[in-house]
Amino acid sequence: MTVRISFDLDDSDLKHLRQIMAQAKPEQNEPEAVVSAARDLVQSATEAKPPKFVEERLNRVELLIRMVEDDDWQLPGEDRRRVLTALSYLNQGEDLIPDGTPVLGFLDDAILIELLVRELQHEIRAYEDFCAFRSERRVAQHDFTRRDWLIAKREMLQDRMRRRRDAMRRRRHRGWRLFG
Question: CB of 154 within 8 A of CB of 72?
Answer without folding.
Answer: yes
